[in-house]
Design brief:
about 450 residues, mainly alpha, Growth Hormone, Chain: A, 17 helices, Sugar_transport-like, transmembrane helix, membrane
């Protein structure tokens, strides 16, 4: 339960750093079984979230309940906030546990229950927008926060069950197959969004998401986890923050990686309002959300064919530089299309403007994929030996505030307009590009020697 991001699952998960000792190594059959369960888990989890995609479906749904762009931006960023924010609180507790799957399972039950309850409440509450909006933030918020509570356990289980030499293929497989299933989900979303009955329309989407992610949780819960001694920990959540603050103020590499990854919020801010601009300001209607989802996911999936080659030639830092610069270029292009569209100067037609924005969503999805691949790799490459789990928790915790930027972006859309926000997103992305350029190049640096003695590594 960790994408991304991409950002649980492959869209948001970062590869864990193995290193615990004490259990016997798993046999080849056991490794293959855990590997397949993990890949299926990631693929189905992403497919389930594709039915309620945070960048397309959620903003269109919330626009039915409120005119506040700030609330729409906050709702679309809950997935990222929930994934990042709780990790500092659970890190000391999780690190002391010899078994991690129990934590994952509990979080999975809470998440599935909250999402299913919201799907059931759509029918009786659709006629009461204020009550439905409150239920959304309560139950969908619980679903998102549950990811953060299970995130470190999820990553630790992967570290204990997947051999180090297969981690790259493992994460790539989850991203590729998950993204492919999300594309199929996007086709279904496009058709469901044509249903005139709003309660039925969104009830089907949230209900399908509940069923599919529940199957994903069950698959990962079936992984056979070895018992390992507790890892390095600190006294409590406040000590996690204090130690992280020392890293932030005293470690230039930590700070630059944080700024580079935080600039990924530019796409998270841009995405929802790009869809709303096409749907409302250009008159494309709710059905364009499905097309934007397909375009974004297609870019996300296909880009994974290019990143390994770029990584081999330019390293993870090179991917981060390309992704941050490309995100800024997409934001500038979106602003230009908006200005030239019928909304602004009228130099290009409505249909042409929508197609252009859909094409830019494709490129934005590719840049999002690159950001996730680069960030996950750089976390491992740059983390101090022996404390990677704490490093990951601290980095993700400090990333949390940047996930509020979509809410700020929504307020700016209310005060100004979407193209202004697109331009500000470009500045944010290019700030991240500058930080990424200053990161150390890890090509040729031998990885830290890890124990081969046990299945915990």
């Amino acid at each position: 339960m960790s994408t991304v991001a991409v950002p649980e699952e492959a869209s948001r998960a970062v590869p864990p750093a193995p290193g615990a000792r004490g259990a016997a190594p798993a046999g080849p059959a056991e490794v293959r079984r855990n590997y397949r369960l993990g890949v299926l888990n990631g693929a189905l989890y992403q497919a389930g979230e594709g039915f309620i995609d945070a960048h397309t479906v959620i903003p269109v749904f919330l626009a039915r309940l409120t005119e506040s762009r700030a609330l729409i931006g906050l709702g679309s960023s809950l997935v990222e906030i929930g994934w990042l924010a709780p990790q500092f609180a659970v890190a000391p507790w999780v690190a002391r546990r010899p078994r991690q799957l129990a934590v994952y399972r509990r979080a999975a039950v809470v998440r599935a229950g909250a999402l299913g309850l919201f799907a059931a409440l759509l029918w009786p509450l659709m006629a009461h927008p204020a009550a439905l909006l409150a239920a959304f933030f309560l139950l969908y918020g619980a679903y998102c926060l549950g990811a953060g509570f299970g995130a470190l356990s999820f990553m630790e289980v992967v570290g204990r069950t997947i051999p180090r030499e297969r981690l790259g293929a493992f994460w790539s497989s989850r991203l590729f197959w998950g993204g492919s299933l999300v594309a199929l989900a996007g086709l279904a979303v496009r058709e469901v969004l044509r249903i005139p009955d709003l309660a039925l329309r969104y009830g089907l989407l949230f209900g399908a998401a509940t069923v599919v992610v529940s199957v994903a949780y069950a698959l990962f819960s079936a992984v056979r986890e070895p018992v390992c001694p507790p890892g390095e920990s600190v006294n409590g959540p406040l000590e996690v923050l204090r130690d992280g603050w020392r890293q932030l103020t005293g470690d230039r590499t930590f700070r630059r990686l944080l700024v580079a990854r935080s600039s990924g919020a530019a796409w998270l801010t841009l995405g929802p309002f790009l869809v709303l601009f096409a749907a409302h300001d250009l008159g494309g209607g709710a059905k364009v959300a499905g097309t934007f989802l397909l375009a974004r996911v297609a870019g996300f999936v296909l880009a994974n064919l290019a990143w390994p080659r770029l990584s081999a030639s330019r390293g993870s830092r090179g991917i981060m530089r390309v992704s941050t610069f490309g995100t800024g270029a997409v934001a500038v292009a979106c602003a230009a299309v908006a200005v030239f569209s019928p909304w602004g100067l009228g130099w290009i037609g409505r249909s042409a403007a929508i197609v252009a924005l859909e094409s830019l969503a494709f490129v934005g999805g590719a840049m999002q994929s690159g950001m996730m691949v680069a960030y996950g790799s750089l976390l491992l490459e740059l983390a101090p030996g022996g404390r990677r789990q704490l490093f990951v928790a601290q980095m993700n915790t400090f990333l949390g505030p940047s996930m509020l930027l979509p809410a700020l972006g929504g307020a700016l859309v209310d005060w100004f307009n979407a193209p202004v926000v697109f331009g500000l997103c470009a500045l944010l992305a290019w700030t991240g590009h500058r930080a990424a350029t200053g990161l150390p190049d890890q090509r040729g640096v031998p990885p830290e020697a890890l124990s081969e003695e046990c299945g915990c590594g």
